[in-house]
Design a protein that fits this description.
Layout (H helix, E strand, L loop, with lengths): L1 H14 L3 E3 L1 H9 L5 E4 L5 H14 L2 E4 L3 H8 L6 E4 L2 H20 L1
Parallel strand pairs: 2-3
Antiparallel strand pairs: 1-4, 2-4
Amino acid sequence: MNRDKVFSYMGFAARSRNLVTGYNTCILMMERKKIRLLILTEDLAENTMKKMLQQCDRSHVEYRIFGKREQLSHITGNCDKGIYGITDRHFAEIICKEIDRIQSEREVF
């Protein structure tokens, strides 16, 4: 399944230190123009989601809403995080493509 690919790529990004997590860290990294893709979990608090999307607009950062907090925390070795910033351009492109493919397939069914 394609979800597994996204999880694998995020795991690789975490192990190669191309992934940052958490609200404050991601905002700081977006302001410094270091984040290529922001991934927000589907179960993120509504207010947090709104603030992060506004920051994405201000910083011109691409984002995707994907997965559950528990899944992504487990895959990336983090504890209960719902916000992930990918700092490597290649990882960002691959993960973005896979998430888009999964979400477009979901719309078909």
